[in-house]
Amino acid sequence: MKKKTFFLFAIIIFLIILISIFYINASKKSKIGHTNNSQEIVENILNISSYNAIIDVKVVSNKNENQYVIKQEYQSQDSNSQEVIEPTNIAGTKIIREGNKLTLENSRLNLSSIIENYQYISANSLDLSSFIEDYKNDSKANYEENQNEIKMYTTYNNNVNNNCKKTLYIDKKTNLPTQLEIEWTNKNNRVYILYNEVEIK
Q1: Nearest Cα to 43, choosing from 149, 143, 126?
Q2: Count of Cβ atoms closer than 10 Å to residue 162 Cβ
Q3: pTM of the entire structure?
Q4: Spatial contact of 188 and 46, defined as CB atoms under 8 Å apart
Q5: E runs forming strands in the chain
Q6: Which tens digit of pLDDT belongs to each residue from 120-131?
Q7: What is the spatial distance between Cα 152 and Cα 142, in angstroms, rounded to a whole number?
Q8: Could you say which of 5, 72, 93, 177 would form a disulfide bridge with 106 (CB–CB 3.0 to 4.6 Å)?
Q9: What is the Cα–Cα distance from 171 to 60, expressed in whole angstroms?
Q10: Do the Cβ atoms of 73 and 81 come closer than 8 Å?
Q11: DSSP single-letter state for residue 148
């Protein structure tokens, strides 16, 4: 009787150990794809190697307001592209960067007028990678959080875009960016980017 009890007890202990090991391993795998630790979420954003996104862009200035839908593909700093989906008058325009080479493609349009009239579309300031680079190079960059999201703040200064402020919003449930705001205070221009679809690799 004692041997049977001991044997049953040993089996129960063995099963508890197996279940514990399985739970720990499953928990580790879950944390790789999803985490609620804010510092880890920020680090994951700063270490993005490539991404694809469909974004809504609203450009607001003193003179007017323009809206765009853009498809972004970012493979690396030396290989990325943007394609305008809307508005229809410049739809199909592609801005392709390969190293230091910038290529604009659209057989239907006068591309020089695109650069002049849609300067923010042809600039890399709309890239998530541009925000990441600025954040890494800004000694005063920081973030704050609430229950649902993280806000990452950085500024960028040069002779062209003096005092450019950027704010990136991260959803804490998905760990993905939801919105990027860019403000040039000396020009009183603002860009609002909504990430409708984003896939980070």
Answers
A1: 143
A2: 12
A3: 0.74
A4: no
A5: 51-60, 65-76, 79-86, 94-98, 101-105, 142-145, 149-156, 164-171, 177-184, 189-200
A6: 555 567 888 889
A7: 6
A8: 93
A9: 25
A10: yes
A11: S
